[in-house]
Amino acid sequence: MSRLFKGSTPGLLPRNNSIDRTLNPTTSPQTSGSEKPCSLSRSPDFASQAYQEAEDIEAPRSPLGSNEKPEVIYPEGGLQAWLVVFGSFAGMTAGFGLMNTIGVYQAYVAENQLSEYSESTIGWIFSLYVFLSFFCGLQIGPIFDAKGPRMLVAAGTVFLLLCIFLLGLCTKYWHFMVVFGVLGGIGTSLIFTPAVSAIGHFFFEKRANATGLAATGGSIGGIIFPLMFQSLVPKLGFAWATRIQGFIFIALLIPANLLIKTRLPPRSGGSVVPDFTIFRQPAFALATAGTYFLEWGLFVPITYLASYSLVSGAMTQTFAFQIIAIFNAGSSLGRWAPGYMADKFGRYNTMIGTTLGCLTSSLGLWLPATVLSEAEHVPKSAVYGLIVTYAVIMGFASGSNISLTPVCVGMLCDTQEYGRYYATCYTIVSFGTLTGVPIAGAIIQASGGAYWGVALFTGLCYVCAGVAFTTVRVMKVGWKLNAKY
After folding, report:
1. In 54-136, which ranges are continuous DSSP H helix?
2. Where are the domains of the chain?
3. 274: pLDDT confidence band, cut at 50, 70 and 90?
């Protein structure tokens, strides 16, 4: 049988693991039917019709079988799709830009407002922020699936602006915990989850590239905000430095509210109740475990690299704060380039490669630097070179920790269920982000202020992540090195 529904939906296609590259827009292999493909001719303007008629996305179910799923069309580009990517980019520049600046904030408040507290105690503020940024996705993802992004992004804007404008007034520990940890974490999650999930409604073959482009916003924010903070604090003070950052947030969150939108209809029979039964799928459970270890390790250098640079004695205080900007400069390229490569060589293949880069740089550069900085008669220039090289390489390799994980999760589910799968994954991952930074702070204390323990901890996290993602790939395509997955 063959149907052409208002020119935007093809007939049913066979369910398989390959993508039919003869159609443009492309179709998802997860949502193909079970019949032999029909021979249909397409007009040149079919791609534009496919995404302009958003209400006609899915074809009616075939009466031949109840297990058949209607085919989903992906524009893979066009003005509307790229405007969504730009809106997500703007939202992530604000939300993830704040997240990528926590190392600078941690180093500053530890020497000023919260100087009487230990590293581990201060770490709970920033770990709570990161935890809520991901944990709140448990409910935000299913709401996104059922209701769309509009109210979520609007609420996130309110929370994030309250966080940044009130931050300058904080003087006590509980002030920072409530304002930065709670308000900032919830606000980031409300923007981050819809921004990532909305891209999946417009891209399938090019999803990794599009997600990577949007995720570079967080790295660009992570370059601008630390440098701006370092420049403004001596001139205007902590309060006005954060307020000026808040005004930039306003300019970024306006396009995020206007441009982030969905295209596919709400999932039939969907609810906002989380469903952890999806962990019965071994591949998804392993992908979640791999992501857990990625994020467990990632936020340790993001939080403590500036502090280590300060105590190493290898660089000035000014440059120690700039090391986070260097890290994020590498990450800005690292969030886009792996996404581009993933669409060509395979998403899990690329993830395994970048995880290996994180592992080797942490154990081969940061760990030796922390050991040498404690030794006598070692030139500080050697430590300086290792730290800067590590910031660049780790920044690039770790960029995929944010941009590729949503795409890897999306390969294991239907697009209409993407928000639920992604949110469920990051609900588990969030507990790693909650404990990772305080654990690292406790390791520093147990090591007498030395940082070799946190460098080793970071490297071992990436060893575990690499094993998990490699196992998923082997489960899907075997040990063939040339298999694209």
Report:
1. 79-99, 102-111, 119-135
2. 1-74, 79-477
3. low
Residue with tokens 């799928």: 281
pLDDT in tens, 103-162: 889 888 988 899 898 888 898 999 899 889 878 877 787 788 777 888 899 999 999 999
d(CA 419, CA 143): 8
| Spatial CA neighbour of 84 closest among 207, 219, 199, 188 | 199
Place of tokens 């408040």: 109
Q: Structure pTM?
A: 0.71
**Spatial contact of 9 and 265, defined as CB atoms under 8 Å apart:** no
Question: Residue 352: exposed, middle, or buried by beta-carbon count in 10 A (0-12, 13-18, 19+)?
Answer: buried
Of 287, 328, 338, which Cα lies nearest the Cα of 103? 328
CA distances for 107 relative to 42, 111, 215, 243, 256, angstroms: 59, 7, 25, 19, 30
Is 206's pLDDT higher than 90? no
Q: Rounded distance, CA 247 to CA 225, Å?
A: 12
Express each pLDDT in 151-161 by its tens digit.
899 999 999 99
- DSSP 8-state symbol, 362: I
What is the CATH number assigned to the segment(s) 79-477?
1.20.1250.20
SS3 assignment, position 432: helix
Residue 1 has pLDDT above 60, yes or no: no
